[in-house]
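== Folding task for one protein ==

=== Format: two labelled lines per protein ===

==== Paired sequence and structure tokens ====
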Amino acid sequence: MPNFTAGTSFTDGVTNDVTAAKLNALVADAVPTSSLALASTTGTISNFTSSTANITLGTIPTLTAGTTTGTAGIFTSGTITTALIPTGTFGTTTSTAATITTGTIPTLTAGTTTSTAATITNGTITTALIPTLTAGTTTGTTGIFTSGTVTTLNSTTGTIGNLSTTLAGDFTISQGTGTIGTTGATLGTYGGSTSVPVLAINAKGQVTSTGTAAITSGLTGFRNRIINGDMRIDARNAGAVHTPIANTYSIDRWNFQLAQASKLTAQRKTVTNPQQADNNTYLLNITSTSAYSVTSSDYFLLGQFIEGFNSADLGWGTSGAKSITISFWVYSSLTGTFGGSVQNSAIARSYPFSYTISSASTWEKKTITIAGDTSGTWVTDNGLGIRLYFGLGAGSTVSGTAGSWASANYLSATGAVSVVGTNGATFDITGVQLEAGSTATDFERRPIGTELALCQRYYQKRISDAYATGVVGQAYSTAAAYGSVSFTQEMRASPNIGLASTGSALNTISFMSSAATHPATIGTIVAANIGVNGFQLTATGYTSGFTAGNASVLYRYGSGEVWNASAEL
């Protein structure tokens, strides 16, 4: 408002007379017709109140807003060198130094703003889009960077609760947990005794999927509890056809349980096309010799009994009982559902199982998984631990429902095919494996020497080679002699000993004197002092011909078996 100097004259343009009342009214009603221009090169506006403070153009080198309040303070264009403003909206403002020492800015959008240093030492930013942010004690309810580049993000004091961004380079999390946005694998434990973990990892190092793969080779230890599962060893018959009788052994470790005699034959054979049977080269062939109709209590079984020491780790009969998986290759002239069973030694616990042969005269692999039995008594020493049977025909009273444990003597599955029921029917089997776990791994092929030693724990024999028996003894009188025999492999228990007949005819055995002659009258030879590592042969009842203290040799007339030792279960 201008100053009025004494002596100045003016008129009101109407009556040409100016009174004090008119002058006061003129001042009170004065309204500017255009925007005021406020220019100040230096100075301080200590108190400025306006419902609308709108500066559309201009340069304010220094603006210090002390107690200024503004409902809307809008700067649409211009340069603010230094500004301390409690509330404001910046449009295209350029600021070389924008310092907010205290206050609240609900929304701060840095569009084309350029700042060499944007420092917030104290305050709250609800929503912020800022190229460079140094947070001292700043608290942000929601700090969202929707566009732009954060060159450096430092938080000396404070917490970044949730940071969601795309990182162009390396980053380090010195404390806390970082979560990568791409969905990763499910937390869990993978792999075990029969499988290994399989992981898929992307370029960022994320594990994107997990799984397991069965271990099919290179396993150590005794995985297959079946001995001679590939039918290579046949110490008793050397591949000859034979007619089993009840509770007798065929090829090594495989026995027959038969309610009726002369209904089948057995023979170890070579596999015609090994590649069709997982490269197993031998099989056990069973051929029906009649069309026998089984009665309710009849049974015809091929089985293997597993020693308790070899099955103790399964923990059967306890709450920690492990599952097992049985796998084998089978070739039969018959098709349909076949059966078998797993039992304990006392035949008080049974698990009947079934499997299907789909195509006749075709090699097929079968796999059966059985949950471990938490009940019953299961032998864990050198006695009979587990009975495994493959049914060749079983009556209704000795058959049970497949797929569950029962406190009964079930030898096969109800309704299973009867091999002995069809004259000339064949059943070939090889590659039999019983292992811990619910996954069938590849057949465990052990070296032949190892497999033979495992078999000889239960059965071994001595075959003379050109009359030599390997037994050198001593005469302890003119009519008696003895010799010691050591087993090739320590046996499961003291075995039963079988000897060739005593005599001087073909295929008989006798002790000879040191002069390589035998007494005129030959007595008897018996096995004595039998143990797990050997036994003694004692010859008595001979007439004179020995010299006490001299050596005496056991001799067989013709090649063949001298003795056998059986410690089968």
Summary: Confidence is low (pLDDT under 50) at residues 31-107, 109-117, 135-141.
